[in-house]
Amino acid sequence: MTEPKKRVAILISGRGSNMTALIEAAKAPDYPAEIVGVFANKPDAGGLQIAAGQGIATAWRWHKDYPSRTGFELALSDVLKLWRPDFIALAGFMRLFTPEFTEKWQGRMLNVHPALLPLHKGLHPQQQAIDAGDSESGCTVHFVTAGTDEGPTILQRRVPILPGDTAETLGARILVEEHIAYPEALAMLARGEVSFAG
Ligand code: GAR
Predict the structure, then answer these.
(1) Mean pLDDT of 37-44
(2) Which residue of 56, 108, 194, 197 has the fewest CB atoms within a 10 Å radius of its CB?
(3) pLDDT category, 197, cuts 50, 70, 90?
(4) Name one Pfam family in it (predicted).
């Protein structure tokens, strides 16, 4: 008997190109996960319309409408209760969580970051890599823990940093790899080939 597909909610803040890569991958009949909803922390996140156009449930809660991080997370949790995801995939979701939220989802929440973690956490990682004089960069898909851009790595893909690269040209090169790495990492998690051990 085939295993039921794992239910995945995607959280975004922007254009959602990684979200789109996950949605496309999940269309394959043998992909082990299905996308059950896309949530954004702002009403104008471009990815919301793309997801809705694919017939996927969407919701947004503007974080500025909530007096505290916890209040926002309670609103998010209410949406998640409806969607009943097994896993959460952060795809350009630019809000930090409380430790209570990350602990609740420990081992079940993934993020993609455009750097070879543990190098270059936080904002502008592509520029950080260029400024550091690195010869290569890439992307990391990792489990989310309380520390920003920390948590055990599931997989990385590498790209060269070329002479004359800007944050934009390097970012575009990395993004191509993100779109390969993220569906692959999510499939590994959904098949039980990786688990949290941190
Ligand atoms: C991606 O490059 C992702 O790795 C990055 O934001 C971009 C979102 O693009 N995430 C982070 O920097 C998280 N620390 P997308 O909306 O097109 O997927």
Answers:
(1) 98
(2) 197
(3) confident
(4) Formyl_trans_N
Is pTM, for the whole model, over 0.85?
yes
Q: Is 178 in the pocket of ligand 1 (CB under 6 A)?
A: yes
Q: Is the CB of 90 under 6 A from ligand 1?
A: no
How far, in Å, is the centroid of ligand 1 from the Cα of 153? Answer: 16
Task: Enumerate residues 6+ apart whose C-beta is below 8 A from 22.
Answer: 8, 10, 35, 89, 91, 182, 183, 186
Closest CA to 7 of 186, 194, 193, 197: 186
Q: For the chain, list the domains and their CATH numbers.
A: 6-190 (3.40.50.170)
- At 111, list the tokens: 């993020």
What confidence tier does 43 reach under pLDDT thresholds 50, 70, 90? very high
